Amino acid sequence: MLSNSNEMREKILLEPISQGADNLRIISGYSAHTMVSWHITEIAKRFDRAINIDLTVGMCIRDRLFRPIHEGFKSIMKNGYGDCQSKFTCKYITEGSPVHTKIYLWEKDGKPFRAFTGSANYTQPAFFGRHREYMSECDSAVAVEYLDSLEEDSTYCTHADIEDKIIITEKPQRLITIGTENDHDRLSSISVQGLGVKEVRLPLVIIRGKRKGEVHVHSGINWGQRKGREHNQAYIPVPADIGRTDFFPDVGIHFSVTTDDGKILILSRGQDGGKGMSTPQNNSLLGEYLRNRLGLANGARVDKEDFERYGRTDITFYKLDDEQYFMDFSQPEVNTGNVDAPL
């Protein structure tokens, strides 16, 4: 019996790899690309070999699937995940009744090895202690039989007609529940503000002392601006007073960000005490994105004048739910000349 989240992560998601397992088949009622991101990253850190992960999500035929999650699954399946060599495939149950079952089946050299079943969805809230869960080891042969029975009722998330088979929504469930706008409207800062969700502004420049308003020389957006580093490497500083709140997830948790220009990024907090936020897949992706928004070349040093020209020195984050955020770095329509970051 497994109920402690740390033990669950270790025993179910990682330990079988050290015992030679090389393929993980999952059926989970609900899941998210942020969990896949964390899992593949953790495997790459701890093991010097690739693992195949084959995920089937069971409740899409009944419940809505937030588009960033769908697009995240598709992206990892098509493009892989950074330098990680692990392979990921994702299917949705699209025929028959929805599936609420959770089974994790490890295979070794093409044969059933170990299997687990219980209440935990393949999500970070389930495996990081935000929900109470119960899991236990089960008969791997029975697990294979059950998973095989679902194959003909599932469709790959990359299938051309997948959006005709399940409901893809442009807003997470919480915003659909409390909102009045059309569910198919793309997220925007105006629509998010109108729903009264929590927000914070994070400065991209120094906010205190003699260098207030200046850009960090070798940290923040210019983290990679030093010899031997990839110059796009960057992180967004998280002031201590914000870092101590529950606005952002804990250090190491991966979360998804939809940007005001329609991009999807996966971020996580790192640095000492979670004081910096970057893209765990590749910490150059964030710097490349921000430089593109500022109209700069890849790898260019960012200076105060670049922010002055753009018209802002901060980024606004809106919390949609525990793993989904909206990020507004839109250029002000009217540049008032006030470029000081918020205190």
Structure explained in plain terms:
This protein folds into 2 domains: about 5-170, Endonuclease, Chain A; about 190-330, At1g16640 B3 domain (Beta Barrel), CATH 2.40.330.10. About 25% of the residues lie in helices and about 25% in strands. α2 packs parallel to α3. The chain is an alpha+beta fold and about 350 residues long. α2 (about 35-45) links the parallel β1 and β2. The protein has a 7-stranded mixed beta sheet, sandwiched between helices. Strands 10-15-16-12-13-14-11 form a 7-stranded mixed beta sheet.
Task: Give me the secondary-structure topology.
Blueprint: H1 5-18, E1 23-28, H2 33-46, E2 52-57, E3 65-66, H3 67-79, E4 87-93, E5 103-108, E6 111-118, H4 124-127, E7 135-138, H5 140-150, E8 154-156, H6 162-165, E9 168-169, H7 173-178, H8 189-194, E10 199-203, E11 236-237, H9 240-243, E12 254-259, E13 264-270, E14 276-278, H10 285-294, H11 304-310, E15 314-319, E16 324-328
Parallel strand pairs: 1-2, 2-4, 3-9, 12-16
Antiparallel strand pairs: 1-5, 4-8, 5-6, 6-7, 10-15, 11-14, 12-13, 13-14, 15-16
Helix pairs in contact: 2-3
Please give the number of β-strands. Answer: 16
Major beta sheet summary:
7 strands, mixed
Q: Output mean pLDDT.
A: 90
| Sheet/helix structural class | alpha+beta
Strand order in the sheet with the most strands: 7-6-5-1-2-4-8
What is the C-alpha radius of gyration, as a whole number of Å?
21 Å
CATH superfamily of the largest domain: Endonuclease Chain A
Uncertain segments of ≥5 residues (pLDDT<50)?
178-184
Measured as a percent range, the helix fraction is: 25-40%
Order of helices and strands: HEHEEHEEEHEHEHEHHEEHEEEHHEE
Q: What is the CATH-assigned architecture of the largest domain?
A: 2-Layer Sandwich
Number of domains: 2
Quote the CATH topology of the largest domain: Endonuclease, Chain A
CATH class of the largest domain: Alpha Beta
β-strand percent reads 15-25%
| SS element count, helices | 11
Form type: globular
Distance between the termini: 49 Å
